[in-house]
Amino acid sequence: MERFTAFESAMAVLPVDNIDTDQIIPARFLKTISKEGLGDQLFYDWRYEADGSPKGDFVLNSGAARSAQVLLAGDNFGCGSSREHAPWALTQYGFRAVISTSFADIFKGNSLKNSLLPVVVSREIHAKLLQQAAGDPQSKVRVDLERQTLTLADGTECRFAVDEFSKTCMLEGVDELGYLLKHEAEIAAYEAAHAGGLDTVGVGL
Amino acid sequence: MTKPRNIIEKLWDAHVVAEPAGAPSLLYIDLHLVHEVTSPQAFEGLRQRGLKVRRPDKTFGTCDHSTPTTPRDLPIVDPIARAQVEQFEKNCTEFGIPHFGFLNKRQGIVHVIGPEYGLTHPGMTVVCGDSHTATHGAFGALAFGIGTSQVEHVLATQTLLQRKSKSFAVRVNGALRPGVTAKDIILALIARIGVGGGTECVFEFTGSTIRALTMEERMTVCNMSIEGGARAGLIAPDDVTYEFLKGRAFAPQGAAWDAAVARWKELPSDEGATYDKEIAIDGAALEPMITFGTNPGMGMAISGVVPDPAAVSDSVERETLKKALEYMALEAGKPLAGKPIDVVFIGSCTNSRMSDLRAAASVLKGRKVSGKVRVMVVPGSQQIKREAEAEGLDRVFREAGAEWREAGCSMCIAMNGDQLAPGQYSVSTSNRNFEGRQGKGGRTFLASPLTAAASAVTGVVTDPRSIK
């Protein structure tokens, strides 16, 4: 994983609540056995016509939003399935942060493991961000994970919460598995105290 | 005196391996279910790091999502799906994971076969790279969906880094009226709290209505916890649970069974245990439910009318509802009952078990499905398929004009070729009505097997209580 550094970007705006992972990447694209090549499938059915041509009125197909690294979405972003293909598709497209008033649990956890920062803001700040983007789609926000701040174009700075552990992992570019593997002794002790497993003898596998 | 604990806290406490400073806890996982769609990248990660599966004896696999529901002697036509299924079986074999492969006669939807073969026990932590893992909570297990990175974590370490969830008591009391089912309970809950209402929480379903449910019905309720935003939902085990589990292939046997039951009896929430959130639902007042929109929270009693976006004050909420009704091509203020449909799907990890098939068959017996409607019945497992055939349910469905297919996720997720055409309407017993979920451009009304079967007969959205 790459280290997550502070950045400035325009926003792509999807002002819809409860955007589910089936919209972020439709299930028919989950037959792949790879993590790669999913950026083109991001928001596929909102982004492309039946013949594969881009829908002109979709936000990712127009103007400043096309190269935005920040997605501004409605409440409860990422609800639905547990597919990690959703943050894979978002990051491969080029997004580094998603701003919403709340995120679905599994999506949030998956994002933090893939250097995609979920930024939760208040309804007031959310409304202000919508206004900013409507006024000037080119206008930028600054995302600083280390300071846990989001800065609007008018200089308004707001602090966002992030799990301290995930923050460290993202800033240092390390993944959780390495950390888990260091706890071998504790895991072995737990297993010694809690014996048991599937007895497949006689089930005839 | 120790503080009274609810079952969610008891399950958490029993599985904490370590609580390192400045990090989430390490939680031990008792059962890890894997399937073909969310695991290949995790196995690839293990290979890249040179890691083994730590506990293949606590891991179990099957394929269900991208597998066809056509006769098993036919090949998997889609080359990408075929490659995924082949890779899955290769991964299981290479890493020594017990599994029911595509052609195994015990194959089925992962959340159906877990309970069917007694893999899921009360008191367990159960995970799977699938958000409907909450189904296993029906047994008093802490069961939740995980992403592919976490699949890799569990394969390698049998643990996960987790923060403790909040607890959310859902109390349902009263006797359900005729025509009202377990599916209607969970759809009613989600309609009330919304699809984000349970975020950061685990539901505990309690109350007399829940106690009166069979295990299959309890699985239907827990299954859709994620649709209310909760990662997990569970029901404390009782005699109904033990009766269901006893004698199943992977259930404890003999003296081990008695010892296990004694342990499981300690699981129910203590008298005086508290919760972070609570809600009460009057089970006796529930009606058959149906969704009208593009998420499971957009649901109503089947006698209701489609809500009007103009009545919503918040601008984003209003636009969200407006967008949903546009997608569904529905008019605000109009009832859904009577709306013509094109497809009925009876299946999925929500409603594909014997009792669901029996409910649908009770409506279809001696009747014909509408000539305008395609009706697909997809059993949750090959074992259920055999049982249903032994009871003659397959004949009921076929004689009514419905398709009787092989087991799998099928049109719930539409990865395997079973799908709606653009613009088509379905009444579906599955769990998600998201845009395109059942096929690009398809429009889904979620409902119970009774409502689905009644609608199959008439060709329009139908209150099952109107079919005599």
Biggest sheet architecture of chain B? 5 strands, parallel
Can you name the CATH architecture of the largest domain in chain A? Alpha-Beta Barrel
Strand order of the largest sheet of chain B: 5-4-3-6-7
Give the CATH level 1 class of the largest domain in chain A.
Answer: Alpha Beta
**Contiguous helical run count of chain A:** 8
Q: Decide which structural class fits the backbone of chain A.
A: alpha/beta
Q: What ranges of chain B have pLDDT less than 50 throughout 5 or more consecutive residues?
A: none
Query: Biggest interface in this structure?
Result: A-B, 59 and 79 residues
Shape annotation of chain A: globular
Distance between the termini of chain B: 57 Å
Ends of chain A: how far apart?
39 Å
Q: Which oligomeric state applies?
A: heterodimer
What's the arrangement of strands in the largest beta sheet of chain A? 4-3-2-1-5-6-7
Mean pLDDT value of chain B: 97
Task: State the fourth-level CATH superfamily of the largest domain in chain A.
Answer: Aconitase, domain 4
Helix content of chain A: 25-40%
Largest sheet of chain A: 7 strands, mixed
